[in-house]
Design goal:
By secondary structure, the protein is an all-alpha fold. The chain is built from 7 helices and no strands. Pfam families: Peptidase_A24 (PF01478).
């Protein structure tokens, strides 16, 4: 019987690299919570440190780190293009990818998107805006479909926002969820 194993190999990273990743994620969550911005010194600096640490003994290797950073950036780029995330959020995920490499960054992204969805629903409930959020989702799908048919970019400015989320917190929690799975549960 053919057995498909979707869980990637164990993540081999020196403890110091994981501690630096941890510090970067915590700093991003706190800064984003307070300012709704993620500074370049943290995101781009984090990516550079992740790439550098990948060549340490027991590191994931530079090529895998580079693939992880690129994947973290490219996968979230459509969300940025649609105005659903900020540029700092995708740069933070690229930095996470530099530390985790490919394929682990894909699972961290999946966990982040799940956390982000839960947080968005909670935020909408807290603001008593669930109906508006559902209508926004409907409008987003309609505008995107119409734009695709006409070969244009969707006019997302027509959708009224229910508020801003510090998505760096979701990236932090999603990455922690994946690391918990890799190192504790799995």
């Amino acid at each position: 019987m053919l057995q498909l194993n979707l869980i990637p190999h164990a993540l081999t990273q020196p403890v110091v690299a994981l501690l630096v990743l941890d510090a970067m994620l915590l700093a991003a969550a706190v800064i984003d919570w307070r300012t709704f911005r993620l500074p370049n010194w943290l995101t781009l600096g984090g990516a550079a440190v992740g790439l550098t640490m990948s060549v340490l003994p027991e590191g994931i290797g530079f090529f895998e780190s580079l693939l992880g950073a690129g994947t973290g950036l490219i996968v979230l780029l459509p969300l940025y293009a649609m105005g659903m995330t900020g540029a700092g959020d995708i740069k933070l995920m690229a930095a996470v990818g530099a530390f985790l490499g490919l394929p682990h960054v894909l699972f961290a992204i999946l966990c982040t998107l799940i956390v982000g969805g839960i947080v968005a629903i909670g935020f909408a409930m807290w603001r008593r805006s669930v109906a508006r959020m559902v209508l926004n989702a409907r409008d987003l799908m309609q505008l995107t479909a119409l734009a695709a048919v006409h070969g244009e970019r969707p006019q997302l400015g027509l959708i009224s926002s229910i508020g801003r989320l510090p998505y760096g917190i979701c990236v932090c929690a999603g990455t922690y969820a994946w690391l918990l799975w890799v190192y504790v549960i799995h």
